[in-house]
Amino acid sequence: MNAKRIIPCLDVHAGRVVKGVHFVDFKDVGDPAACAMEYERQGADELVFLDISATVEERHTTVDLVRKTAEKISVPLTVGGGIRTVDDFRELFDAGAAKISVNTAAVRNPDLIRQAADAFGSERIVLAIDAKSSGTDSETGEEKYHVYVSGGNEDTGIDLVSWARQGAELGAGEILLTSIDKDGMKSGFDHEMLKAVCAVCDIPVVASGGGGDLASFSGLFLETSADAALAASIFHFGEYTVGDIKNELRAHGIPVL
């Protein structure tokens, strides 16, 4: 088993880190750079900076804020939100992003994944997927999931597993998979959704949505082949530190950095 990564997520709106439930009802958490520095101090392996309203507001990611945050930390920073073109990728890489995640724009124009991977390398391109249960398949009895875009507001009707497979084939080097059903609930990660995606992709999958008590993290890695866990609420509101999570994983024989 490879070492598992713990990744705090900074959802940024109007220049501040916020956290909601099911992508709504946001509460202010603090300054992005200050939060990033604290999570690096706690032992975060990476950080994710998501400008959560950029796509809905039809604007670009706040580049200056990304630069200010990246300058304060040494761990890799993944940036997403409002990215539509290869030039957008280039601008954010120049601002200090180590990796860039793309969601809505990739669904609208799947070839953007290939273009970015060709220009910057697959290892720097993250396909972010927000998904929600669409019910049970009447023939197989398996749970099905749809891909959502525009900050979780629009059901595309696209099958999650098919899209994840296509994204990997186009050149994405990693998938950041968020369960909308689990977002902010702290009730545990969506294992079935993760298993379905991991089964068709040979690239790392980051689990997002549902991180709650310590057991939810050890359970994630013991029961799925996810490569990393992303969480926000438990860190932002001081319930656990990154170190607490890593100690839990070590206690279950799960390797961490």
Description of the structure:
This protein has 257 residues and is α/β, with parallel strands linked by helices. The chain has one domain: Aldolase class I (TIM Barrel, Alpha-Beta Barrel), CATH 3.20.20.70. The chain contains ten helices and twelve strands. The chain has an eight-stranded parallel beta barrel, surrounded by seven helices. The longest helix is centred in the N-terminal third of the chain and has 11 residues, at 32-42. The radius of gyration is 17 Å and the shape is globular.
What would the keywords be for this entry?
12 strands, 257 residues, alpha/beta, eight-stranded parallel beta barrel, globular, TIM Barrel
Residue fraction in strands: 25-35%
Q: What is the succession of H and E elements?
A: EEEHEHEHEHHEEEHEHEHEHH
Largest sheet: 8 strands, parallel, barrel
Q: For the record, give the distance between the C-alpha atoms at the N and C termini, rounded to a whole number.
A: 12 Å
Helix-residue proportion: 25-40%
Q: How much is the average pLDDT?
A: 94
The number of distinct structural domains comes to 1
Strand line-up in the sheet with most strands: 1-4-5-6-7-10-11-12
CATH superfamily, please? Aldolase class I
C-alpha Rg (nearest Å): 17 Å
Shape assignment: globular
Looking at the overall shape, the CATH architecture is Alpha-Beta Barrel
The tally of beta strands, per DSSP, is: 12
Low-confidence stretches: none
Total of DSSP H or I helical runs spanning 4+ residues: 10
Indicate the structural class: alpha/beta
What would the CATH topology be?
TIM Barrel
The CATH class is Alpha Beta
